[in-house]
Amino acid sequence: MTGSAHAIEFSGAAFAYRERDVLCDVHLVVREGEFVGVLGPNGSGKTTLVRGATRVVTPRAGVVRVHGIDVGTIARRDLARQIAVVPQEGVPIFPYTVLETVLMGRAPWLGSFAFEGDDDVARARDALAAVDATHLEDRDLSELSGGERQRVVVARALAQNTRIVLADEPTAHLDLRHAVSMFQLFRRLRDERGLAVMLVTHDLNLAARHCDRVVLLAEGTIRADGAPRDVLTAPLLERTFGTRIEVRLRDDGTPFVVAAG
Ligand SMILES: Nc1ncnc2c1ncn2[C@@H]1O[C@H](COP(=O)(O)OP(=O)(O)O)[C@@H](O)[C@H]1O
Ligand SMILES: [Mg+2]
Q: Is residue 1 in some structural domain?
C-alpha cells in the first residue's frame, strides 16, 4: 500500500461488455474516510463501476487504482484484503447458516486450508450485531426474508475487515428502519474507522442526508459529482431520470427529493 489517501481512483476509465460501451471517461476518486453515494437510472453503469473497482471487469481505457496501485496488478487475495463488496445480487443460497455465511468474509485472512479461529468467529458476530442480525446467527440462509439476507451479506463484507467497502444497493430490500440504520452504519464506519465507502443506491434522500458526496451517472459517464445539495437539483434529476421531480430543502439545507409525476 502506498501513502496515497486515495482509496479508489478511476482515471479516464472506460468499461464495455463486448462491443457495448457502458461507461467512458470516468474520473472519480473515493478517499479514505469518505462516504460516496453513486446514483443513476437503471442500466446507467452503477454496478459496472463497482465491478471495475474489483477488476471483475477490466477497463477498456484508462486505469483504476486501489490505494494508488493499478487494480489489474493486485493479486486477488490482496485485493480481497483491501476491498469488501456487497453485491447487488446478494449471495447464492447454499445450505449454510447465517454465521457460516458471514465467516466466509474471513477467507482472505486465513491460511490455505486453515479453519476459522475464535477471533474470526468473534469478528463475524460483531458484524452480525452491527446489522441487527445477531438473532439470525443459527438460521439457514434459505429461510431468511430478502431484507434479512441483505443484512447478512453486509455483515459478511464487514467481517472481511477491509479499508474499503463497496455496497451495491444494500438497502433495496430493507424496511425504513433498517435502511436508515444501514446508512448510519456506513457513516459510523467512515467516522470511527476511516473507511472509504462507495454505496450505490436509489434512496436519494438517505444519500442526501448521509453521504459526503454523491455521484450521478447518466448516458455513459459521470454527469455530476459533488455535495448532495449541488447534485440533487430538480433540473438535473428530471433530465437524468426523465420524470417530474421536486426538490425541497430541509431545515439543515439537505435536499429532499420527491417524484412528482
Ligand atoms: N454481463 C453483461 N454483459 C452485457 N451487458 C451487460 C452486462 N452487465 C450489464 N450489462 C449492460 O450494461 C449496462 C449497465 O449495467 P449496470 O452496470 O448493471 O447498470 P446499473 O447497475 O446502473 O443498473 C446495462 O445496459 C446492462 O444491460
Ligand atoms: Mg446495478
A: no
> Which protein residue has the closest C-alpha to ligand 1 atom 4?
17
Atom 26 of ligand 1, residue of closest alpha carbon: 43
Domain contains 203: yes
- CA 238/CA 247 separation, integer angstroms: 10
Tell whether 220 is covered by a domain: yes
DSSP string, 118-156: HHHHHHHHHHHHHTT-GGGTTSBGGGS-HHHHHHHHHHH
CB of residue 42 inside a 6 A radius of ligand 1: yes
- Output the CA 43–ligand 2 centroid distance in Å: 7
Give pLDDT tens digits for 183-242. 999 999 999 999 999 999 999 999 999 999 999 999 999 999 999 999 999 999 999 999
Q: 73 is in which domain, residue-wise? A: 6-259
φ/ψ (deg, to 5) at 143: -95, 5
The answer as to whether 28 is a domain residue is yes
Question: Nine-digit cell at 196?
Answer: 472509504
CATH of the domain at 235: 3.40.50.300
- Say what the pTM is: 0.95
Q: Which of 10, 25, 42, 7 is nearest to 243 (CA)?
A: 42
Number of structural domains (the chain) is: 1
144 alpha-carbon distance from chain centroid: 22
